[in-house]
Amino acid sequence: MANKISLQTADSPHLFGDSTTREIMKWVLITLLPIILIAGYFFGWYVYLLFLIAIITAQLCEVIWFKLLKKEFTWDLSAIVTAVLMTMNLPPSAPWYFPVIGAVFAIIVVKEFFGGLGYNFLNPALGGRALLVGLFFQDMFKISWPNPPFANYSPDVVTKATPLAQMKTEVLSTAELWENFLGLTGGRIGETCSLLIILAGFVLWRKNIIQLHIPFIILTTVTIGAWFFAGDGGFAPWQTVIGHLLGGGLLLGAVFMATDYASSPSTKVGECCYAFGIGCLIIVFRFWGATNEGVSYAILTMNCATPLIDRILRRRVLGEQATLPLGIKLRR
Amino acid sequence: MKINHFSGGFFFDSSTNKLKELFKVHQKDIAYFEPQKVVIPFDQHIGAPNELIVKVGDFVTKGEIIAKSSADISGHVHTSITGQVIDICDVPALGGGKQTAAVIQHIPSKNHLESLIDENLSSETKVRAAGIVGLGGATFPTHVKLNPADHIDVQTIILNGAECEPFIASDDFLMQKESRKILRGGEIAREILAAKQILIGIEEDKPKAIAAMKNAAIEIDNCHVVCLPVKYPQGGEGQLLETLLRAESPLEGRSVETGAFTINVATAFAIAESVDERKSLTHRYVTICGDVKTPQVICFPLGTQVKDLINYCGGFVGTPSRIIHGGPMMGKSVTDLSLPLTKASNGIIVFNEAHDGKLPESPCIRCNRCVEVCPVRLEPQNIDLAYRSGDLFTCDQLLATACINCGCCTYVCPAKRNLAATITKASSEIKAQKEAQEDGK
């Protein structure tokens, strides 16, 4: 027998699963791809350019940051996911520098300043958008209407009310709800086509990348909230409730933003509280806020509550005395 | 019987399942290995250290005690072959350290029969005399476990045949071959503890073992074989209790406080042999598999060295890069092939370079998969983070000491961080700190 063999010393376990960070990011991008494609179909070729600018900027920022810090760069696709999600939150008529500013802020300030991948306490895509809203409030709320197929080069800006604004005064017809569902309505680049977002969420759930409790609780809370508060002194008609679910980036936020790993709590119980908080805040922002929308700010606000949730809630360890229901333990 | 799924755990990914198929042991009968020389470490249990009672030059017969301790929590060590003590020296131990062992050279002799345990002893004392410890890997002395505090009323004897570690098939073959004796061991434990029922938990991927055990269980009243899902870590004591009885063993206490006495099937077999046939624990089954020429389950005398068994299996296939003692999820890596196998050994797995799949670590993305699979419901990602930033206080608050080191968190981690390793380190450092504090008082 060969005596000169070099044997590794390693801690157990000696087996590893198949999932990798890159695989997860890859699947998020795959599910986002149809939404990107349909956005160009609705709003024109120009939005593809916006996506491209954002992706290049984000990836460059990350490479340069790693160079400056002399860290080893790993090609994990996370910057691309951030860039794509940030662009989906822009209006189709956004000038070229919107994605640049948004991506730089998202990657450098929101993500890398706090330690990079996994350490950001805010969702970087939404952080980038929040800055843009602060800087260019007027332009960020310009609305374009779909003009398929592939419109002209750049989308027209119209002064029509979005379904969310429309619902304040009238009840949507069934035909309009169908249009909302399929995406033939005014809105941001990636938020209009509810059908594709739902399909994407389903694929991500099947791939075990997201779990459904966060989107489910957010949507349920918004449904109940809309039913209570959208009507004039009574319960709202079902069309309005459905309209609230389909409108204003709620689905995009619930499926892709609220489920962001780094900025959501560690435990399932914590995630449920977090999702409920998001749902309640969306209702507050939509009915009493300055604009009709508020999904992104609701998520950003609850991102800030995540460390607190993680600090006070933990799971009851196997064999520990039960004190609270649902297997929760409060930590001092 | 309706079973309850334990919390956490996971099903192996397709790459592991492929490897499982590749590493499967195909054999009809158990091989018996008889080495010329054995190296028997004095301490093969958890508890008080043993003292050697033989010296160099002594002639010993198989089954004779060579090291023991008068302390209650200890397990006698016997010689596993007949021969002469030729040396007492330091030999490699698992984890890289050294341990003292007696080297015994085999001398063929017809005059010396196996030395047997005294017939007139009670069952419990026979178990102690046979040096039986938990053979599932814990190596806690079984006679101590058979003698719980007075207020504990044991209702159920659980025989653990889950064998959830992939590749290992030692218990599987033992159950196929020795089903009657295993159940007899369960019955002896039931008599000692005045318990009511016997449950045998076996994972579904061992149909032959299940059939054999079911067949044998028919003759015994109140004895049931329960098929368990192939979910890791089904064979953990706490997980088995949760699955079969919906019981949780208390965090700071013994599992027997739940009213169930859990032992590995190999331990039950050893109990039956010690009580009925007065044999000491000198042999056990081990699976030698992975990248060796003829992988197989072997019945070997304790103290056999790894290199002898690998030679017996025809040597390595390719260049070995990692050899594991025990299962691939919880086993420790072997660095010296002269390591002797002990009561805790149930498998040796050889990975050559093609099958050694460690990827570099990347940052934690806080995906919470480790939290979901942790069978004791810890938050591995947060403990890992706290430990790496030197915050032992937070590790303690997150109950890092409750970790059972099953390795689930590391397995599912997409960032390939070895969370199980850092938590184990955190746990041992916290325990050391607490002990130091208590000593200071």
UniProtKB/TrEMBL annotation, chain A:
The keyword Electron transport applies. Keywords: Electron transport, Flavoprotein, FMN, Membrane, Phosphoprotein, Translocase, Transmembrane, Transmembrane helix, Transport. It comes from the Bacteria. InterPro entries: NqrB/RnfD (IPR004338), RnfD_bac (IPR011303). GO terms for biological process: electron transport chain; transmembrane transport. GO terms for cellular component: plasma membrane. The chain crosses the membrane at residues 24-42, 96-114, 126-145, 181-205, 212-230, 236-257, 269-288. Pfam families: NQR2_RnfD_RnfE. This is Electron transport complex subunit D.
From TrEMBL, chain B:
Its cofactor is [4Fe-4S] cluster. The keyword Translocase applies. One of its GO terms (biological process) is electron transport chain. This is Ion-translocating oxidoreductase complex subunit C. PANTHER family: ION-TRANSLOCATING OXIDOREDUCTASE COMPLEX SUBUNIT C (PTHR43034:SF2). It comes from Enterococcus saigonensis. It comes from the Bacteria. Gene3D superfamilies: 3.10.20.600, 3.30.70.20, NADH-ubiquinone oxidoreductase 51kDa subunit (3.40.50.11540). One of its GO terms (cellular component) is plasma membrane. SUPFAM superfamilies: alpha-helical ferredoxin, Nqo1 FMN-binding domain-like. Part of a membrane-bound complex that couples electron transfer with translocation of ions across the membrane. One of its GO terms (molecular function) is 4 iron, 4 sulfur cluster binding. Belongs to the 4Fe4S bacterial-type ferredoxin family. RnfC subfamily. The gene is rnfC. It is found in: Cell membrane.
